[in-house]
C-alpha cells in the first residue's frame, strides 16, 4: 500500500524538492536511521512552506546536494556539521542554540580558570540574540543592528586570536573560527532564524518513529518512507478529507483486482448483509471481491476505527519495516 502511495506521490515529491531549491532560506538536519539493520541517515529540509525528507546511506555533502542542489545560493540555517560548509554559493547561519549548549557543558565541567572563555562566548552570543529582540520590538533599526553585528564579530575575532592552554576551550575557539562568517547572519536578514529549530521540529516525528520501530528492513521499503511523510503535511484539511486523499493514493484501482467470482453468501451472511460478517477483532467488513476464496478486511475501516478511539495507527506493508515484515 505504501509503495503505491509513493509511486503516485512521486510527482508531488519532485515538486517539493523543487520548492526546497527555490526557497530563500532552508533549514537542513539529519539523524541516524536503520535500513536492513545497518546505519543510514534520515535528512529533513525545511524551506518556505515546504518540508522534504530523504533516507540516504550517507551523511555527506553529496547526500545533501541530492535535495538542495550543489549550487544552492540561499541561506542555510544549520548546525556545525562540516559538510554544510561545502555549499559555498550559500550564506550560512550556524545554530546558536548548539553553541550555547556547548558553552553550558564546558561551564558545568570547568575548574578554576577554565570558565573564562565559555563565559565570554556565551555573552557575545546572547548579545546577538538581544539585538535581534530589539529589532523585533522596534527599539533598534536596521543600521543599528548591522553595527551591533559588526561589533560582536570583532569581539569574536579577539577571542579566537587569544591564547588558551585548556584543550576544550581551544577546540571551541577553533570551531568559532570555522563558523565565524555564519554567526550573525540572522542580524542582517529579517527572515533568517538564529537556530535551526525548524529542521529540528521537522525531524522530530521521524525520531519518534525510529525509537518505536527501529527503521526499515530494506531500501525498497525506505523509499516510500521519504515520499509519503513529505507529501502528508500538504493535506491541510479535515481528517476525513485527508483520509479520502490518502485512500486514493493507497488503494489499488478496481480494474487491477483479479476477476474472480465472489463465493455465494451463506444464509448466515444474508442475515446481516451480502458483504458478510464483520471481522471479530476489528469490526471491519470484508471486501466485495475476494482472493482464493478468503475474506479480506480493509485497512481503511480499521484506520477509521482506530482514529475514533484516539489511537494512532502504525502503517506499513510486508517487508517494509521491522514490525510488519
Concise summary:
The protein is α/β, with parallel strands linked by helices and 325 residues long. It has eleven helices and five strands; from the N terminus they run αβββαββααααααααα. It has three domains: 128 residues, Nucleotidyltransferase, domain 5 (2-Layer Sandwich), CATH 3.30.420; 92 residues; 74 residues, no CATH class.
Structural notes for this entry:
This protein is of the alpha/beta class and 325 residues long. It has three domains: 2-92 and 196-232, Nucleotidyltransferase, domain 5, CATH 3.30.420; 96-187; 252-325, no CATH class. Helices cover 47% and strands 10% of the residues. It contains eleven helices and five strands, in the order H-E-E-E-H-E-E-H-H-H-H-H-H-H-H-H. It has helices at residues 2-22, 61-68, 96-109, 116-136, 142-161, 167-178, 197-213, 219-231, 239-250, 267-272, 299-308; strands spanning 25-35, 38-46, 51-56, 75-78, 91-94. Strands 3-2-1-4-5 form a five-stranded mixed sheet, with helices on both faces. A hairpin with a 4-residue loop joins strand 2 (38-46) and strand 3. Helix 1 (2-22) packs across helix 8 (219-231), helix 4 packs antiparallel against helix 5 and helix 5 packs across helix 6. The longest helix is centred in the N-terminal third of the chain and has 21 residues, at 2-22. It is globular. The two termini are 14 Å apart.
